[in-house]
Amino acid sequence: MKRTNEFAVGLAVLLALTVVVAGALWLSETDLNKQQVTAQARFRTVGGLGVGAPVTLRGVKVGRVEAIRLVANEWVETEFSLDRVVELPPKPAVISASASLFGEWSANIISYDPPPTDPNLREALAESDQVGGDAWPGATLPDIGQLTAQASRIAGDVGVVTQRISQAFDSTALKNMQQSVKDLAEISGRLVEFAGAQTTRIDRVSRNVATTSDAFAGVAQTFQGAVARLDTATSDNQLKDILNNGRASSADLRQAAGDLRSVMTAARENQASLIRVVQQADSLMTKIQRGNGTLGMLASDSTLYRETTATVIQFRELLTDIKANPKKYLKISVF
Amino acid sequence: MSPPVASRIAARDGFVAHIGRRSLETARALADVRTWSPLLMGQMRRLGVDSVPIALFIAVFTGIVLSLLSSYIFTGAVPLYFVGALVGKTVMMELGPVLTGMALAGRVGASIAAELGTMKVTEQVDALETLAYDRNAYLVVPRVLAATLMFPVVTALAMGVGITSGWITAVNLLDLSTPEFFKGLKLFYQFKDIWFGLLKSASFGAAVALMGCLRGLDAKSGAQGVGQSTTRAVVLGCEAILVLDAFWALVLL
Predict the structure, then answer these.
(1) Measured in whole angstroms, how far is the alpha carbon of residue B179 from the centre of its chain?
(2) What is the pLDDT of residues B40-56, one digit of tens each?
């Protein structure tokens, strides 16, 4: 009986121990095969994040929060266990955020390079990153309670504004408003009359607009035809030929411009010589006009002319005399 | 103050003092190991192992009811995987220990009170003292120790069975898959959930056994007195469980 008691009690205790230990290990997802690594992140506040909360990377659960502790300088350090096989970003950061409306929070691993666009997050991560150390920078998004509180404050402000508006709209204001409405109705009636009177003119303007619109349509059609022809020309390579010819003409023009530049350079060089020649000629002409030198004397003194003319006359007379009396001037003897 | 009220308060003071005195005697009797140790295993078997079926029976239906009730409450308002969280937390921290304790208070407390009461009215307790046995070491300590040690064992098994029955119910009767149920179960789990429940159940065991022993050893007036002592032992055991439950919740949560 005693051994039976011992066996029964031992069996019950072993079963209970198995249930407790196995259940605790399974529920806490304890890593018995050491397939997980640990990492730390630093937050100013972790919000509703608690031990056991999931750690996600791009929305996929890759670990869990193992510990949360307060550390120096008003920081909160959080320890995670992560699957060893997960490839983390080169510079990871952690965002603690509400995962649902029912109090679930999760730690989301993101890449800190580049930092997130949200200015508050970026500032919080930068502050956490400045501390340095092995812990990753961390930031916390506001939870639904904070957002609700903010909405509540806004609702309160709206309520105050509404109350002030209701106070502003007292009986006098209401009467004024009623009068304004009546005035508005009267103005509306006048506007209706005016609109009735202007209907004919508006109709005419509308017709003109329609005519103009038709003209525009014709222009558009013509333009469309031109475009079509251009399209046809393009399809027959005519436009391409034109472009090629234009390109060749442009090359010829560039060549002609080059030649012209060469000619102009030579002309510029000759221009100096010409100027010199003109200057010398001018100087020479001046001397001649003044009667300096032989040519000047020839140009200004007629004596030479007369003497030359007398000499030519005498030379003619001499030739005539020689023709008439050759023996007088020519004496030919042999021996 | 009227005399009946005063006498009632005085009687209550006397009851509290009586409990304190008996507890001190039991604590002193712990030193007499040679007297109570041979009896411990038998009491553990009788109070603990033999109580497992009734505890598991209660746990099965607790899990079923919790699963269905939470589904009824959550539908349309909260995601259904929270059924797992509610079943796990409730069974581990509250209903597992308390319902098991209540059931065992009826079974164990009544058994102890009836046994010791009968021994008292038939003067077997006096005979033991005549034979130089310390009645606390021989009768009270093995029962209190056995209940303190075995209540957590029974409660642990009840927790496992309760959660399992809740899971089976959720999968078969509710629109909930196994991964969803386990997701909810693991969602807010902390190791404290388990040891909190086991610690409570140990205290419940000690209280239930102590109340049974006290009422049994105080039994008077023959069979009728034994019956009254048994009834009072069960009632006091249940009250002690509820008081301790509130106490641990205040202290540890």
Answers:
(1) 33
(2) 999 999 999 999 999 99
What are the two backbone dihedrals, phi and then psi, of residue A305, each rounded to the nearest 5 degrees?
Answer: -60, -45
A75 - beta bridge partners?
A71
Distance CA A248, CA A245 (A): 5
Select from A5, A51, A102 the Cβ nearest to the Cβ of B41.
Answer: A5
Cα–Cα dist B209/B198, whole Å: 16
DSSP string, B41-81: HHHIIIIIGGGHHHHHHHHHHHHHHHHHHHHHHHTTTS-TT
pLDDT greater than 80 at residue A148: no
In this prediction, residue B1 carries a pLDDT of: 46
Please say whether the beta carbons of B185 and B87 come within 8 A. Answer: yes
Residues of A with CB below 8 A from B42's CB? 1-2, 5
Q: For chain A, give the longest Cα–Cα distance.
A: 201
Range from A80-94, A204-218, A287-301 that averages highest in pLDDT:
A80-94
Residue type, B47: L
**Which residues of B are less than 8 Å from A5 in CB distance?**
41-42, 44-45
Instruction: Provide, as residue numbers in chain B, all residues whose Cβ is less than 8 Å from the Cβ of A29.
Output: 186
The token pair that represents A23 in the structure block: 């259940």
Q: Which two tokens stand for residue B21?
A: 């005195």
Going B169 to B170 to B174 to B177, the CA torsion angle's sign is negative
* Residue matched to tokens 């050759």: A326
Give the structural domain span for B23: 3-252
Q: Write phi, then psi, for A105 (nearest 5 degrees).
A: -125, 155
The model's confidence at residue B4, banded by pLDDT at 50, 70 and 90, is low
Distance from CA of A6 to the nearest CA of B (A): 6
Position of tokens 């079963």?
A: A15
Of B49, B88, B159, the CB nearest to A8: B49
CA distances from A4 to A307, B50, B148, B156 (A): 181, 12, 21, 22
3-state secondary structure of A11: helix
> Does B186 contact A12 at a Cβ distance shorter than 8 Å?
no
What are the beta bridge partners of residue A97? A106
pLDDT at B147 over 90: yes
**Shortest CA distance from A20: residue in chain B:** B156
Instruction: Specify the number of domains making up chain B.
Output: 1
B contact set with A (CB within 8 A):
41-42, 44-45, 48-49, 52, 78-79, 82, 88, 150, 152-154, 156-157, 159-160, 163, 185-191, 194, 198
- The beta-carbon neighbor of A9 closest among B48, B189, B191 is B48
The pLDDT of residue A1:
59
How many pairs of residues across A and B have Cβ atoms under 8 Å apart? 67
